[in-house]
Design brief:
Distance between the termini: 31 Å
Mean pLDDT: 82
Number of domains: 2
Shape: globular
Strand order of the largest sheet: 2-5-8-1-9
CATH topology of the largest domain: Rossmann fold
Largest sheet: 5 strands, parallel
Structural class: alpha/beta
CATH superfamily of the largest domain: P-loop containing nucleotide triphosphate hydrolases
CATH class of the largest domain: Alpha Beta
Length: 331
């Protein structure tokens, strides 16, 4: 037991040091956005996808590219447009006139990190093709199915203010994203530093901190950390939180504000995210504050508000805040 405890402590310190170094390296390029960077790292270690929502020009794309470089991950970007077809994402079967045989041209989904830029501009067929890749870690081209990389994440962006020429993401696809992150405007000091860096026009040299094998190894270590019997109380708390998002389970006030709540997939995502968050911060166990921190990115895209809530100017974050206040930690 002592040997195992010592090994876990070493792994936890290793993870904490690596995460801090990733943040420092990313900071050579990215000013601010620490929460977004840490959430991307947590998604890497949790095997989860991310939906980034924010106005243009806030550094979503450059942040994803920078983290991919620091983690030595294969990176591909697709600009989603209304004329995109599924084959542009997954690949297609083509005829080779020289060999007189068909061959497979694999698409950009065969990578470690796929940036789906403005995902809500793609039609339903493209979105469904991406859905298979996100959920099943495989794609079907012609009559054959091809596995994707073991380390495969989708980071999708969408602009919250543009409606013309966009397609609403179906709830089934939104539920596949582990996190929804809101990318906000920088502070005055951050924006000034961004401008000064751009004026200098000097490209930062980045060191590779982790590679794909180390990420997978850390995933296995974290997933084996703290057996279920040691965390039953915190698992019960997370389950109550997610169930409280559903109108039939919540209190009287929330029943009038929420149309649909989160699915059991949210409970799983919350458990994984909170465990990784605790691990990379060097804590010995998952605590309620870890769960509460991860509740916002995990739940905000899974709560569908009623017209009454929208008329009151409420958003899903305010609902989550009410749930965190209402649901007891121990019961």
């Amino acid at each position: 037991m002592k040997t195992r405890t010592k090994t876990i402590a070493n792994d936890r310190n290793f993870a904490k040091e690596k995460v801090e170094k990733i943040k420092r390296e990313a900071g050579k390029v990215i000013v601010g956005q620490e929460e977004m960077i840490e959430s991307i790292i947590i998604a890497f270690l949790s095997d989860g996808h991310i939906l980034l929502e924010g106005y243009p020009g806030l550094g979503k794309t450059i942040t994803v590219k920078t983290v991919a470089r620091v983690m030595n991950a294969k990176f591909k970007r697709v600009q989603f447009t209304p004329d995109l077809i599924p084959g542009d994402i997954t690949g297609f079967e083509m005829w080779d006139p020289e060999t007189r045989k068909s061959r497979i041209q694999k698409g950009p989904v065969f990578t470690n990190l796929l940036l789906a830029d403005e995902i809500n501009r793609a039609p339903a067929k493209v979105q469904s093709a991406l859905l298979e890749a996100m959920q099943e870690k495989q794609v079907t081209i012609g009559r054959e199915t091809y596995p994707l990389e073991e380390l495969f994440l989708v980071l999708a962006t969408q602009n919250p203010i543009e409606i013309s020429g966009t397609y609403l993401l179906p709830e089934a696809e939104i539920d596949r994203f582990m996190f929804k992150l809101k990318v906000r405007y920088p502070t005055y000091s951050d924006e000034r530093e961004i401008t000064e860096r751009q004026i200098r026009d000097v490209e930062a040299e980045l060191d590779v901190v982790l590679d794909a094998k180390e990420v997978i190894s850390l995933r296995h270590t974290i997933s084996g950390w703290m057996p279920l019997e040691e965390t039953s109380a915190i698992v019960k708390y997370m389950t109550r939180l997610v169930r409280a998002t559903r109108p039939e389970e919540g209190n009287g006030e929330l029943r009038n504000l929420v149309m649909y709540g989160a699915s059991p997939r949210a409970t799983i995502a919350l458990a994984k995210a909170a465990r990784v968050y605790a691990f990379i911060h060097g804590d010995d166990m998952v605590l309620p504050e870890h769960v509460q921190k991860m509740a916002y990115p995990v739940l905000r895209h899974r709560i569908i508000l009623t017209h009454e809530a929208e008329s009151q100017g409420m958003d899903s974050d305010s609902i989550i805040e009410k749930i965190l206040q209402h649901v007891p930690i121990l019961e």
